């Protein structure tokens, strides 16, 4: 696939006003992913942007590998983006004929709408893999 998952940043700012690159490049191949907390709210640190951040995914208290073969709980848009890239990989594995733009469209059009994201994130919602697969069935 030739799309790029991007991290909009972790400084609680609006990327429409203060762009962060490569997430703020205007390219149809980019999916910019904000981070949510355990309450499905925008994480306190996550950047946002109605025009420049596409979708949100879990990004707080994510168990991840760390130094010296250990695990630790981490926060950040770096924790959120892999959820969306994993969803894209699942779609490509299930339907290999889908193009990159079709995969992006399916992911972004099958979000769980969250009123708290209106005006802050393009889709207004969070990743929903179940809805994603319903959309292609």
State the share of residues found in helices, binned by percent. Answer: 25-40%
Q: What percentage of the residues does DSSP assign to strands (E)?
A: 15-25%
Order of helices and strands: EEEEEHHEEH
Q: State the end-to-end distance.
A: 21 Å
Give the integer mean of the pLDDT values.
93
Helix vs. strand class: alpha/beta
| Unreliable parts | none
Backbone shape: globular
Task: Write down the domain tally.
Answer: 1
Q: What is the number of helices?
A: 3
- The counted number of beta strands is 7
Describe the main β-sheet briefly. Answer: 3 strands, parallel
Q: Any idea what the radius of gyration is?
A: 14 Å
Going across the major beta sheet, what is the strand order?
A: 1-2-3
Overview of this protein structure:
The protein has 137 residues and is an alpha/beta fold. The protein has one domain. It contains three helices and seven strands; from the N terminus they run E-E-E-E-E-H-H-E-E-H. The radius of gyration is 14 Å and the shape is globular.
Sequence-ordered SSE layout with sheet pairings:
Blueprint lengths: L3 E3 L23 E7 L18 E4 L3 E5 L3 E5 L2 H18 L5 H10 L2 E2 L11 E2 L2 H8 L1
Parallel strand pairs: 1-2, 2-3
Antiparallel strand pairs: 4-5, 6-7
């Amino acid at each position: 696939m030739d799309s790029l998952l991007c991290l909009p940043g972790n400084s609680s700012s609006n990327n429409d006003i203060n762009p962060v690159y490569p997430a703020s490049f205007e390219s149809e191949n980019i999916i910019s992913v904000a981070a949510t907390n355990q309450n499905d709210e925008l994480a306190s640190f996550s950047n946002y942007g109605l025009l420049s951040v596409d979708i949100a995914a879990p990004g707080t208290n994510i168990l991840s590998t760390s130094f010296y073969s250990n695990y630790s709980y981490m926060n950040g848009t770096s924790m959120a983006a892999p959820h969306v890239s994993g969803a894209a990989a699942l779609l490509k594995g299930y339907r290999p004929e889908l193009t990159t733009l079709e995969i992006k469209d399916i992911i972004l059009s099958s979000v769980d709408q969250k009123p708290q994201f209106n005006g802050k994130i393009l889709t207004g919602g969070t990743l929903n893999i179940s809805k994603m697969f319903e959309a292609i069935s």
